Sequence to fold (211 residues):
Amino acid sequence: MEYANKSVRMMRRQAGIAFDAFCITERPDELDRDIQPIAPKIKVAGWWNKLLTFDKDMPKGWIVVMDVDLLIVNSLKDILQYAFQNTRQMAAYSDAIHWRNCKLSSSLMIFRSGDLHHIYERFKFEMPTNETYHGAGDQGWMAQHLTDILYLDEVFPNFKQSLKVDLARAVNGNTFEIQSVLGSQVRIVDFHGRPKPHECLSVPFVRDNWR
Fold:
């Protein structure tokens, strides 16, 4: 829940536009006061919870879904405005390694509330899990039901950087040497996998922004 709260705080500082914050959770008492809890309608595990955001009963308007382990380091205003003006079905960015041949990353998704309700209904019918679906997890499953994805990294190169792929070098197995300075174009650092932000507080750009 610390991650959820800090994710919204980072967005408050960097979105550049007013927004209402929501969190799908069964632990509403642990949220900051300015975050509105949404109780999950169906019980699913892990990243499959992201599919719940496609339900037509989600808050109205534009929805920006973000993984709570994204580090927001610079203004997203122009990127969000571009997405709102140009998205026909969904805006997102490319997976750092095209895991299992899937281009879509579900770490950041932008769409109009209710537009993807058909995917939610399909999800309820199939109820995929890590055990029954052997593709690239939630993003692999949803990608096969999407026909028009606006990839924001093709418009704003380098706005998203993968910590492990773009900013770090593996040293002795699971230990990483992370560069201390980010390029000026970077807005988001994606902490997919390990390490996570709370494990990297000695790195200046993490310490200064994960709060």
Notes: DSSP finds six helices and eleven strands in the chain. The chain has a mean pLDDT of 95. Helices lie at 2-14, 77-86, 117-126, 137-143, 163-167, 204-209.
